[in-house]
Amino acid sequence: MNYEGRLFQKVGANDGVLSRYRQDGDLVWADFTGGKVRRGTVNGTCAADGTLRLAYTMVLDSGEVISGYTVNVPQPRPDGLLVLREQWERYGENADSGVSYLEEVATPSFSSTQTGART
Question: Could you tell me if residue 1 is inside a domain?
């Protein structure tokens, strides 16, 4: 499974937080921003079955810094896009754990005459 260029958002959140994934071999990383997140990153590895093991950090608008670890298991949808079942653990003074879901967002095709970066 290849995550290169795939865009994900939390299922049902509609908070504007989007993550664009990159991949080089088994190495996977992503940047995310939007909503209350000023900046966030994930870094980790991808197993042969597409399972992601990732460390994450983010800085919120409030200035709070959050870090943790997540294991994401891909679940293909009938339309070919993915849903990631995300079992996460947050560290620090607001330590917590849980399960959430990320859904792949279809990205529009751009012709070579269009400009501008999409993040």
Answer: no
